[in-house]
Write a structure and sequence with these properties.
Layout (H helix, E strand, L loop, with lengths): L2 E5 L5 E6 L6 H13 L5 H13 L6 E8 L3 E3 L3 E7 L3 E8 L4 E8 L2 E7 L3 E19 L7
Antiparallel strand pairs: 1-2, 3-9, 4-9, 5-8, 5-9, 6-7, 6-9
């Protein structure tokens, strides 16, 4: 049996996975990320940590490689469009139902960014990337879920 050990920035040691015990290394790493939130004392910072960890578990609404036009989707209140790219080139067009470009978004060199869709309506995405990419439609951070 092998054990994967991760050392946090404060020097604590967490056993995060037991190989052969049915826990994947990826799941163990996700669990370790959430465990790191436990040590945060300030409420807003701890909640932000948990929110960040939960986002890693949510599958994307759209994903692909290279170019693709998504199915249309309807927005009835402001939402956050979060997008990630693994490639050097990523261009995303947010388009209205009639094909008009609402916003041109891009990433150079890979990474992640967000854009707030403010107006209700029906939209679709025209994506052009040099590698794989993922896109999420998430509740706007400024809206309360209570």
């Amino acid at each position: 049996m092998s054990v994967l050990i991760e050392r946090t920035s404060i020097g604590s040691v967490f056993v995060v996975a037991f190989a052969g015990a049915g826990i994947s290394v990826g799941a163990a790493a996700q669990q370790a990320g959430a465990q790191s939130c436990l040590s945060i004392v300030e409420n807003d910072a701890r909640l932000a940590c948990y929110d960040r960890e939960v986002r890693k578990l949510v599958p994307p609404n759209f994903s692909g490689r290279l170019s693709k036009t998504t199915d249309s989707f309807h927005v009835d209140r402001p939402i956050r469009l979060r997008y990630q790219s693994d490639g050097a080139i990523f261009v995303l067009y947010l388009k209205s139902a009639d094909g008009s470009v609402i916003q041109n978004l891009h990433l150079g060199g890979g990474g992640e960014a967000t854009y707030r869709i403010e107006q209700p309506g029906t939209y679709f995405l025209d994506v052009n990337g040099s590698e794989s990419w993922r896109i999420w439609l998430e509740p706007d951070a400024t809206q309360s879920t209570n």
